[in-house]
Amino acid sequence: MIPNVVIDEAVERALAEDLSGGDLTTEATIDPSARAVARAVARRELVVAGGEVFARVFYRLDPGLRVERLLADGALAKPGDALWLVEGAAASILMGERTALNFAQHLSGIATQARRYVAALPAGSRTRITDTRKTTPGLRALERYAVRCGGAHNHRDTLGSAVLIKDNHIAAAGGIAAAIERARARAPHTSRLQIEVDSLEQLDQALAGGADIVMLDNFATADVIEGVRRAKNKALIEVSGGITLERIGELAGAGVDVISVGALTHSVPAADIGLDLERLGP
C-alpha cells in the first residue's frame, strides 16, 4: 500500500492547485443542501488502481461524504463497470471530481500498461518486468504502486537505495574498472553492485570487475542472447532501452532476468474513466 502521508501530501497539492480560487461554477449553480450519488465508471477495459487516492480527495474536501470501493485495486474492469461510488453533498462531489479522476485515470493507466507487459511474458517465464525512475516528479510512490497493481515490479526507489553505475558515472570515474573498484570500496556490504553497459566489450569488463548485475542498454536481441551466455553463473542480466511490448517475448526467451521499461510510467495514456452523477434531493 501507499503510506498515508504520501497520499495526503499529493492530494493537498492537487486540491490547492485546482481550488485555490474556489469553484465559481459550483458555487453559482448548486444549492448547498443538494445531495447526489456519483459512480466512477470504466469507459474501456482497464486495470483498477488508485482507489485510496480517489477516496482521499473527497474525504479531504468533505468528511461527510461516503466513498465505497466497488472494485479492488488490481482488478480488471470491463467497459461499464462501476469502480467507486461517492455519496453526499453534490457541491463537494463536483469540486473533487476532476482531481479525483486525474489521479484515478493516471494510476489506472499505468496499471493497465503494466498488465500488458506482464501478459506478454511467455508462460512460465521467470523474467521480471520493472519500472524505472522515469516517473512524474512528486508522484513516484503513487505511480510505482500502480505498477505493482498491474503485476510488474519496481526498480530502485531512490538514488540512495542501490548502486547503479551508468554511462556518465563511468566517464567521470575514468572507466568501468575504476568505477567498480571505487564502488566496491565505498558501498555498503548489503548493496549489490549494478552497472550499465552499451557493448559486449563493456559487458566483459563489467564481469571481470565482479559486477553483480549488468544492465544491457539498447542492445539488439542477438547481442542480448550473447550477453546472457557470457554472464551465465556470473551476474544477473537486465535489459533496458528501446523496450517495446512486441520485444518482451523474445527478450524473456533470451533468458534475461529483468526487463526495465520506462514506458510503464513516463508516457502512459490515461485510462478512460468517467464520473456519472445523479441528484438525490432535496
What does this structure look like?
- The chain is 42% helix and 20% strand.
- It is of the alpha/beta class.
- The protein has 2 domains: 4-118 and 268-281, Alpha-Beta Complex (Aldehyde Oxidoreductase, domain 3), CATH 3.90.1170.20; 153-260, TIM Barrel (Alpha-Beta Barrel), CATH 3.20.20.70.
- The strands form 3 sheets. The protein has a 6-stranded parallel beta sheet with strand order 6-11-10-9-8-7. Strands 3-5-1-12 form a 4-stranded antiparallel beta sheet, with helices on one face.
- The protein starts with a helix and ends with a strand.
- The mean pLDDT is 96.
Beta fraction of the residues?
15-25%
CATH topology of the largest domain: Aldehyde Oxidoreductase, domain 3
Shape assignment: elongated
**Biggest sheet: strands, sense, closure?**
6 strands, parallel
CATH architecture of the largest domain: Alpha-Beta Complex
The CATH C-level class name of the largest domain = Alpha Beta
Total E-strand runs: 12
Q: Summarize the helix and strand pattern as letters.
A: HHEEHEEEHEHEHHEHEHEHEE
Low-confidence stretches: none
CATH superfamily of the largest domain: Quinolinate phosphoribosyl transferase, N-terminal domain
Number of helices: 10
Classify the secondary structure makeup into a structural class: alpha/beta
The helix fraction, in percent, is 40-55%
Taken together, the total number of domains comes to 2
Average of the residue pLDDT scores: 96
**Gap between N and C termini, in Å?**
38 Å
Instruction: From the alpha carbons, calculate the radius of gyration and give it in angstroms.
Output: 23 Å
Strand order of the largest sheet: 6-11-10-9-8-7
